[in-house]
Amino acid sequence: MYVGIDVGTSTVKAAAFDAEGRELAVAARPVTLALHGGTVEQDMDEVYGAVVAVLREVTERAPGPVELAGLTGQGDGVWLVDADGRPVRPAASWMDGRAHELVDRWLADGTFETVFRRTGSAMFPGCPGPLLAWLDSYEPKALDEASAAVYCKDMVFQRLTGRPHATTDVSDASMPFLDPRTRAYDNRVVELLGLTHRRGLLAPVSDPVATARTQAAGLPPGTRIANGPYDLPACALGAGVTSPGDGLLIVGTCLASLVATTDLDLTGEPAGLYINTDRPGHWLRAMPAMVGTAALDWVLSTTGVRHDQVDELLAETPPGAHGVGVLPYFAPSGERAPFVEPRLRAELTGVSLESTKADLIRATCEGIGFAARHCLEAAGLTGSLAVCGGGTRSPAWMRLLADVLGRPLRVVEGEVGARGAVLAAAERYGVALDAAAWTEPTAVVEPDAARAAYYADAYDDHLARLAQARRRARS
Question: Quick one: signal sequence residues (predicted)?
Answer without folding.
Answer: none
